[in-house]
């Protein structure tokens, strides 16, 4: 298909640019999140009538103000650890437990116990949990995560389906699970699957719901099909923007085929990737063997995605936003690792120099939440822009 240019990023508006320069002066590296952008994404998904329940996957970005913003837009919150559940109740004290979903993977049983006591929805994804801790689960209403035998996503490291994957109950053990659940008087009300992150294949959704509905009918008591997250965002001008209208139309068709079930989604990236930028200062500009290299005070400790997944994030020189981007630079961080590279080659203004404020774009999802203090570097600061 034709490649449409992406929306002009919010941070290029002159007023925003000024504000970002002020925030950068308070110290970098710093993540900055624009809450209006988060609300815009929430409202886009709220407008899709085929979706009955929306949970935000807080692992993408668990800043309390983002949690409160999305809760205020009617979103539930999906958590993968007891720590995330506690953060949700601390950040959004009035949230009803029905709007919280716990979808752990190999969590200690003590976390299941603590979270079940909170009354939130809990997803189990294997038979062994019921066999080893029957009294924890007896008589409960639970959701079941199934491995549909195939996965997807922007990189093999975010593919969560198939034999090699640790996630979900094997289709081969569904009958065994049903028998174990019956014996414990457990009612399975939701079937869950999440096959990967950053899914571009538009046929994915229909295929997965058809497959999930088959399992749901075998189980019998299922009301909800939770199709996970995985909505992509365009990180570069070469990426096709996600066609939300086509996706919504596809879901409406799916709903028409499977009217017995409510549909739930759990997007993370889509909600917050574009709301966030990482501000950093250039530390040094160095020429070596014909390569011009600009170093930043943010490295893979601040934003791991390029090092871990070869992910692309656009990089701009905020101090020289009006200058032509006409010279190739390699952009690197201060960490003692060869993978501490944000871009092998990106066009930046020729005058780019130490002290310039550099901006790494679309960093709101899996940015701060995956940051570390490797090399004894401080965690990035976080700032919010709200209108
Ligand atoms: N639901 C479950 C059960 C998940 O495991 C995830 C993400 C989501 C929902 C949200 O997926 P999203 O809509 O964000 O694709 N760190 C990687 C992504 C890992 C995703 C892990 N699970 C990255 O930066 O690309």
Characteristic key phrases:
387 residues, alpha/beta, TIM Barrel, 2 domains, 8-stranded mixed beta sheet, 12 helices, elongated, Diaminopimelate decarboxylase
Summarize the SSE layout with pairings.
Layout: H1 14-25, E1 30-34, H2 35-46, E2 53-57, H3 64-72, E3 76-79, H4 82-91, E4 100-102, H5 109-117, E5 121-124, H6 128-132, H7 134-137, E6 141-147, E7 169-170, H8 174-183, E8 187-192, H9 204-219, E9 224-226, H10 244-257, E10 262-265, H11 269-272, E11 276-288, E12 291-296, H12 305-309, E13 315-317, E14 327-332, E15 341-348, E16 357-360, E17 381-385
Parallel strand pairs: 1-17, 2-3, 2-10, 3-4, 4-5, 5-6, 6-7, 6-8, 8-9, 9-10, 12-14
Antiparallel strand pairs: 1-11, 11-12, 11-16, 13-16, 14-15
Helix pairs in contact: 2-3
What does this molecule look like?
The structure is a single chain. This protein has 2 domains: 35-271, TIM Barrel, CATH 3.20.20; 273-385, Beta Barrel (Lyase, Ornithine Decarboxylase, Chain A, domain 1). It has helices at 14-25, 35-46, 64-72, 82-91, 109-117, 128-132, 134-137, 174-183, 204-219, 244-257, 269-272, 305-309, and strands at 30-34, 53-57, 76-79, 100-102, 121-124, 141-147, 169-170, 187-192, 224-226, 262-265, 276-288, 291-296, 315-317, 327-332, 341-348, 357-360, 381-385. It is built from 12 helices and 17 strands. The protein is elongated and about 70 Å long. The chain has 387 residues and is α/β, with parallel strands linked by helices. Strands 1, 11, 12, 13, 14, 15, 16 and 17 form an 8-stranded mixed β-sheet that branches. Strands 2-3-4-5-6-8-9-10 form an 8-stranded parallel β-barrel, surrounded by 5 helices. Helix 2 packs parallel to helix 3. The mean pLDDT is 96. Strand 8, helix 9 (204-219) and strand 9 form a beta-alpha-beta unit. The structure holds ligand LLP.
